[in-house]
Amino acid sequence: MKRTILSLLLLTGVMLLMSACGLLQEPEEASSTIEATPLVIATSTSQPFIETEESGGEMEEAANAETETDPAAAGELRLYKISQADSEVRFELDEDLRGVRKTVIGTTDQVAGEIAVDLSDLSNVQAGVIQINARTLTTDNNFRNRAIQNQILNTGEFEFITFTPTAISGLPASAGVGEEVTFTIEGDLTIRDIIRQVIFTVVAMADSDGTIFGTATTIIMRADYNLNIPSVPNVANVEEEVELYIDFIATAS
Question: Which residues contact 94 (CB under 8 A, 6 or more apart)?
């Protein structure tokens, strides 16, 4: 009898703990299919900071950040939009689960963004806001998914993670079809209501069918975004570093 009572109390305690950590609560569903924030292509006098390998390492600032023009009239710039059907965002970090070290991987295809590119003059590259629907991130464990969405990312209130580019560096002067290029995009990464500056390293290539594909990677620290792991049974030693990847295919509009 005592053992039964003790077991019930223990079970009740575990259930209360799981409930407090959001493990039993169904997260909010995505409000809609994600759509890209339209990139208004700027004229050559209103571009963001661009640094190419042949600019001597000097940053060039736009003289007039107010000037805008229609994409069709913007020289050879071509607008590309990330395809959700062919793209994926994922995060990776390690944890001890029931005493075994494992890599946790969370993924979603709900990523959107636009980029304008002229392969013959990469100093004109312009990148728009990248949005990720945090409500659609999933791992291989439903309890973990609920904790991530309800407790860690609070996706009921903060549905989207956003990256707003502020500078592009390291591009060559031009690139041909099938030629791989590596460069960096610096910008503001917003998770919940916290904004931090991060730098993505991008490896990309264009093909002859009006498609750009590649991967953007960066590492953030959980502490920088107050991504605190709730105390739950069987989970320990969660890694501080979180690796972020955007595997993208963008097609010409």
Answer: 101, 102, 103, 104, 237, 238, 239
